[in-house]
Specification:
Blueprint: E1 9-14, E2 19-25, E3 31-38, H1 43-58, E4 65-71, H2 77-94, E5 98-101, H3 103-108, E6 117-123, E7 129-135, E8 144-152, H4 154-160, E9 166-169, H5 173-182, E10 188-189, H6 197-208
Parallel strand pairs: 1-4, 4-5, 6-9, 9-10
Antiparallel strand pairs: 1-2, 2-3, 6-7, 7-8
Helix pairs in contact: 1-2, 4-5
Length: 234
């Protein structure tokens, strides 16, 4: 394994879903180490253990991370917040910049190609389907957003999404059925990406030159999080 100087690697942290991933990329864009697993307990504890394992697999200390990219959603509220807080803590402790990257764009990135529209989706449960559409932005450029991220019922997504399109991400059964009902015969479904989402986060952060002040990174919501008000005492 090649030696890596301090501050020479980019770290990607993705906790937007139960499928968590971490990645280290070198200055040339090569993947140095990845960790990907499905959360079975407390994401905060598993994330810290995963980071330790990631740096150990790369044969470097945390001080080798010179920049950090983190998934800011849409996704599971608690897990997105945990990933951001962990990334901010690391960035501040290491005195390195942090980039907040959209989960839907990261899902779309591996599938964007000239002449192709990619629709990335996230199953938001009873709230509906979070989705956005992207087209190719050219070599080494980020995707172009053709439909900004929004939240709709599955039937509405199938009705108004660009067509033909390649679909990727977390597709609920209701959306698959709605697409079939709309007769979207020209659509295709992308195969799972070869690399975990954490790798795409770093690639997008670089293309967008998005690294900056860790304090400026926050979660992105398509609707306000549901928070139960405290019960009155007495």
């Amino acid at each position: 394994m090649a030696d890596h100087a301090p501050k020479s690697l980019d770290l990607g942290i993705d906790t937007a879903s139960d499928d968590v991933s971490l990645a280290l990329l070198d200055e040339a864009g090569a993947v140095v180490a990845v960790r990907a697993w499905r959360v079975h307990g407390t994401v905060a504890l598993e994330l810290l253990a995963g980071l330790d394992a990631l740096f150990e697999a790369a044969g470097v200390s945390r001080e080798a991370a010179g920049r950090i990219a983190v998934d800011v959603g849409p996704g599971q509220y608690g897990q997105v917040r945990t990933g951001i807080a962990t990334a901010q803590g690391l960035a501040l402790g290491l005195e390195v910049p942090l980039a907040g990257i959209d989960r839907l764009e990261a899902d779309a990135l591996p599938h964007v190609a000239p002449g192709r529209t990619v629709v990335a989706v996230h199953d938001a449960g009873r709230a509906g389907v979070a989705w956005a559409a992207f087209t190719d932005g050219g070599p080494d450029a980020p995707p172009v957003t053709s439909v900004a991220a929004r939240l709709d019922a599955a039937a509405e997504v199938a009705r108004i999404a660009p067509s033909p399109a390649t679909w990727c991400g977390e597709t609920p059964e209701a959306l698959t059925a709605a697409r079939d009902a709309e007769g979207r015969s020209g659509d295709t479904v992308a195969a799972p990406a070869a690399e975990p989402r954490a790798v795409a986060l770093v690639r997008l952060a670089r293309r967008r030159q998005a690294y900056g002040d860790p304090a400026g990174v926050d979660a992105r919501y398509l609707r306000p999080p549901s928070i139960t008000p405290p019960r009155p005492r007495g």
